[in-house]
């Protein structure tokens, strides 16, 4: 008698349309209906395995069983990631490239980011009072674009700000889109790589000297395992892998503001309880949608829970569903930062809004620390630095649109300094 079980399987030729229609809930819905944390389906014309939960995350981030090469669909590489970036690497090449990114995330580097970000918020508010009403999402993207460029050593003039903000935003707003929005994302990718690639060449030719230990300086001079400089195109992709995710924090800025509005009792706790800000931003990251899932391919045949995983099978890890898994979180659909007071584990495989695993040896997002710091700066600013009103608007958000943000992008008005 075989000790290998048949994995729960979704019938039908292809379910890519269902994935687009259900968005963040596609995998959680089927985990619930199959009563299983793993199931087989067909997506993008190929067999795929979807899974979620802490044990599935531990498996997914086992580098001996899964690889990233060939996992991201071409349309995602053409917009979000670019070609030959760190997200597509495995083994020693990935470890070496990831170490380059982690070198930028020193305590000093993160503190410098915080100071720049706080300064950009302070400068932005100077014009808000006169304008009467602002759209927070759009303002946050500009603030974060200026922050990202200053922190990365990338020169950015005031007249370039709108263009570069739009280009970098389009990279993360377009991967799940079809038609004109997708083509806008591809064009933005080309424009951004041309812009940053030109700067890399200027640095290497000695025509521009960026500040030491900035992304532009470090990545322009980075050498691969063979001792060769990255080609200018790949170096540009990796510098954009610093800039783009920082601008994307605008999504979390919007949800931070939404949480303060939906749960006003949080303001008092944030003002009076030491350490509560960390709990609050973690709960915002857990509660609200960011990435729906992560993709990898099976590295070699193996068996898990008596299910067979065949080499090269596309595998999706349910990020949103794991963050809302009732086996991991009490009352997961309730906003409760205090839950993190009781969490004794490292959250390495249970809190995974930006991916899981380890920072150095694995594929966990190296920018997670600065994401949380940017959210803290924003929350402090909205609570302690300005007074404002939230007019009547549609603050709902979709779990189908990827990425998701409140439909109004959060308008605030009657803004004054405190």
From TrEMBL:
Its cofactor is heme. Heme binds at residue 365. Pfam families: p450. One of its GO terms (molecular function) is iron ion binding. It comes from Siminovitchia fortis. PANTHER family: CYTOCHROME P450 26, LANOSTEROL 14-ALPHA DEMETHYLASE. Belongs to the cytochrome P450 family. Keywords: Heme, Iron, Metal-binding, Monooxygenase, Oxidoreductase. GO terms for biological process: sterol metabolic process. This is Cytochrome P450. InterPro entries: Cyt_P450 (IPR001128), Cyt_P450_E_grp-I (IPR002401), Cyt_P450_sf (IPR036396). CDD domains: CYP152.
